[in-house]
From TrEMBL:
<keyword id="KW-0443">Lipid metabolism</keyword>
<feature type="domain" description="Methyltransferase type 12">
    <location>
        <begin position="108"/>
        <end position="209"/>
    </location>
</feature>
<feature type="region of interest" description="Disordered">
    <location>
        <begin position="1"/>
        <end position="24"/>
    </location>
</feature>
<comment type="similarity">
    <text>Belongs to the CFA/CMAS family.</text>
</comment>
<feature type="compositionally biased region" description="Basic residues">
    <location>
        <begin position="8"/>
        <end position="24"/>
    </location>
</feature>
<dbReference type="InterPro" id="IPR029063">
    <property type="entry name" value="SAM-dependent_MTases_sf"/>
</dbReference>
<keyword id="KW-0949">S-adenosyl-L-methionine</keyword>
<dbReference type="InterPro" id="IPR013217">
    <property type="entry name" value="Methyltransf_12"/>
</dbReference>
<dbReference type="GO" id="GO:0032259">
    <property type="term" value="P:methylation"/>
</dbReference>
<protein>
    <submittedName>
        <fullName>Class I SAM-dependent methyltransferase</fullName>
        <ecNumber>2.1.-.-</ecNumber>
    </submittedName>
</protein>
<dbReference type="InterPro" id="IPR050723">
    <property type="entry name" value="CFA/CMAS"/>
</dbReference>
<dbReference type="GO" id="GO:0008168">
    <property type="term" value="F:methyltransferase activity"/>
</dbReference>
<keyword id="KW-0489">Methyltransferase</keyword>
<keyword id="KW-0808">Transferase</keyword>
<dbReference type="Pfam" id="PF08242">
    <property type="entry name" value="Methyltransf_12"/>
</dbReference>
Length: 272
């Protein structure tokens, strides 16, 4: 996986990605032959994995994760250096804390990776209150190693392998908050649609899901089926069609992180 936006922390740059023209890309490639080589290697690998997955995005992305985790689990979630891994985890944790996360809450993390933020949530929440799901068995094994290294076994977090966004194994109306950082940025629209279809069932009334995404105000596109770029209006309309309230999180967007955030909130319980 290419370093996620998080690794460009400290170099804010524009939130909206514009696609470079072919000529500009060629010039850029000529100036950075090392990057070109990396890109060609990734292109070849991804083409092979895409063919082997028969076009199933989850199978493809699971294979990408397997390949990336075999080299370096921190890099597989987008932050090759330990320092950046810590910083991006802290950013996610302190954001949700500042938005009211309490130790008594139940938190669902979709695409929990190797617990970059997850270990902080687990440490903070009451035992058994953290649920992490991921499509990658390899990253979940790496997550267990992080859990053990941080001495958090006693917090009994739930770490589950999933094959889709159906969330079928999770109880109804259970979660105060859900969180998906740098997951929709790697997801085609039908995967996001599936998540937004099922998330209302597992949230408490008035509970919310925060997700980050790569924003474009131009044509929506993907790079190597790994990185997806969406207009905010597309994602907001998708959520509203499921009866969720959707809002861009301007305070997150003001932070030095390239991905933007949207919060989708489940309807409150009907008044008696
Ligand atoms: C860039 S990593 C981010 C991990 C974690 N959220 C973090 O910030 O450290 C993306 C993670 O999402 C997982 N993922 C991708 N698509 C998913 C899906 N449809 N359902 C659940 N997890 C998914 C990947 O396996 C990977 O662990």
């Amino acid at each position: 996986m290419p370093p996620d936006a998080s690794t460009r922390h400290g170099r804010p740059g524009p939130r909206t990605r514009r696609r470079a023209s072919g000529r500009k890309r060629l010039l850029h490639a000529a100036r950075h032959p090392d990057r070109l080589l990396r890109y060609v290697r990734r292109l070849t690998r991804d083409w092979r994995l895409l063919r082997a997955s028969g076009g199933d995005h989850i199978a493809f992305y699971r294979a990408v994760m397997r390949s990336d985790v075999s080299k370096d689990a921190n890099a597989a979630v987008g932050t090759p250096s330990q320092e950046r891994w810590e910083a991006v985890g802290e950013l996610q944790f302190s954001y949700l804390r500042s938005h009211g996360l309490l130790p008594t809450h139940h938190l669902l993390e979709i695409g929990c990776g190797n617990l970059r933020a997850g270990w902080r949530f687990i440490d903070y929440l009451a035992p058994g209150h953290y649920y992490g799901v991921d499509i990658s068995p390899d990253i979940l094994l790496a997550a267990q190693r992080v859990l053990a290294a941080r001495g958090l076994q006693g917090k009994l977090p739930h770490l589950s392998l999933v094959e889709d966004m159906g969330l079928a194994h999770l109880p109804e109306g259970h979660f105060d908050m859900a969180h998906a950082h740098s997951v929709f940025s790697h997801s085609p629209l039908h995967v996001i649609d599936e998540c937004l279809t099922h998330i209302p069932r597992v949230l408490k009334p008035g509970g919310f899901l925060d997700f980050t995404y790569n924003r474009t105000d131009d044509e929506e596109h993907h790079v190597l089926h790994e990185d997806f770029y969406y207009r905010p209006a597309t994602l907001i309309a998708l959520a509203e069609n499921k009866g969720l309230t959707a809002a861009p999180m301007d305070d997150w967007d003001a932070l030095p992180h390239r991905q933007c955030k949207i919060r989708v909130t489940a309807p409150p319980s009907p008044s008696p």
